[in-house]
Amino acid sequence: MDKVIFVGAGSMAEAIIAGIVNKSVMRAKDIYVMNKSDEDRLIYMQNTYGVSIVSAERNELSDAGLFILATKPKDIHQAMADIVNHMNDDAAALSVIAGVSIATIESGLGARPIARSMPNTSATIGKSATGVSMNQSVNNNMNKKIISLLSSIGIVKEVVEDELHLVTALSGSGPAYVYYLVEALEEAAISKGLCADTARELIIQTLEGAASMLKKTGEEPSILRKNVTSPGGTTEAGLRALEKNSFKQTISHCINDAEARSRELGIMTDPKIT
C-alpha cells in the first residue's frame, strides 16, 4: 500500500500500527503519524515502531493515498479541518472512530472514498474483530486495500453502516468485557484461597480452550455448554447461580447501553445536528 497517514496517535492507532508493522504488511517507513497536541506521544510511536512524524503545517500530506482517522470523537472536526486542504483528490479516508458517521466525514473531507470501521485493541497481536462499511466512492481496488490492511490485524466483516453501532458495542468494546470477566473470576478464586498466578493461568487457558472449541468444532455454544453440564454437577450449580443473578439480561443491558452510546457519539459529531 502507498503512504498511509494516521491522524491521531492514541491506543487504537498504536494497536493498528503494531499489527501491520509486526506482520510486515507495510514498511514502517511508509507509515506516518500526526497528532495535534502530544509531541511526546509521537516520539514514542516513532521510537517504538519506526514510523515517521508528519504535520499538515509542513505540507507533507499531499502524496498520501490513505488517511486513517483515529482521534477521539470530539476532535474529529478539527482534525478534518487540519488535513482537508492538504489531501489529494484521490486520497481515501478510513475512520476507526466510534460513532462518527460516513456522512459526517464526507461533510468534513468532501466527496472521496471513505470507509468507517471499528477494530478493537487486539489488533496489537493480530487478533482484532473488525466491522467495516464503505461509501459508494470506494472502488474495488481501494476496497481490497482497506480489507487487506484491516485483515492484517485480525478478521474483517463488511456490514451496513448502521450495524457498526452494534459492532462497536459487541467486538469493539468486547475485549474490555472479557478482561472484566477475568478480573471477577480471579477475585473469586483468590478469595477462596487459590494462588493468584495459578488462577490467572487456569483462567487464560480456559478462555483459550473454550474459544478454540467454538471455532474448531463449529458447534452451537448452547450445545457445547450442555456437553459439559452434568445433571446435579458443579457446572449446573454454577450456571444456576448465573441464571439466578440475571447473567444474560446483564449482558443484554451491556450491549444495549454501549450501542446507544455509539449512536449518541454519532449525533454529537453530526454537523447537521450540532
UniProtKB/TrEMBL annotation:
<keyword id="KW-0560">Oxidoreductase</keyword>
<feature type="domain" description="Pyrroline-5-carboxylate reductase dimerisation">
    <location>
        <begin position="161"/>
        <end position="265"/>
    </location>
</feature>
<protein>
    <recommendedName>
        <fullName>Pyrroline-5-carboxylate reductase</fullName>
        <ecNumber>1.5.1.2</ecNumber>
    </recommendedName>
</protein>
<comment type="function">
    <text>Catalyzes the reduction of 1-pyrroline-5-carboxylate (PCA) to L-proline.</text>
</comment>
<dbReference type="GO" id="GO:0004735">
    <property type="term" value="F:pyrroline-5-carboxylate reductase activity"/>
</dbReference>
<keyword id="KW-0521">NADP</keyword>
<comment type="pathway">
    <text>Amino-acid biosynthesis; L-proline biosynthesis; L-proline from L-glutamate 5-semialdehyde: step 1/1.</text>
</comment>
<keyword id="KW-0641">Proline biosynthesis</keyword>
<keyword id="KW-0028">Amino-acid biosynthesis</keyword>
<dbReference type="InterPro" id="IPR028939">
    <property type="entry name" value="P5C_Rdtase_cat_N"/>
</dbReference>
<comment type="similarity">
    <text>Belongs to the pyrroline-5-carboxylate reductase family.</text>
</comment>
<dbReference type="InterPro" id="IPR053790">
    <property type="entry name" value="P5CR-like_CS"/>
</dbReference>
<keyword id="KW-0963">Cytoplasm</keyword>
<dbReference type="InterPro" id="IPR036291">
    <property type="entry name" value="NAD(P)-bd_dom_sf"/>
</dbReference>
<dbReference type="Pfam" id="PF03807">
    <property type="entry name" value="F420_oxidored"/>
</dbReference>
<feature type="domain" description="Pyrroline-5-carboxylate reductase catalytic N-terminal">
    <location>
        <begin position="3"/>
        <end position="97"/>
    </location>
</feature>
<dbReference type="InterPro" id="IPR008927">
    <property type="entry name" value="6-PGluconate_DH-like_C_sf"/>
</dbReference>
<dbReference type="InterPro" id="IPR029036">
    <property type="entry name" value="P5CR_dimer"/>
</dbReference>
<dbReference type="InterPro" id="IPR000304">
    <property type="entry name" value="Pyrroline-COOH_reductase"/>
</dbReference>
<dbReference type="Pfam" id="PF14748">
    <property type="entry name" value="P5CR_dimer"/>
</dbReference>
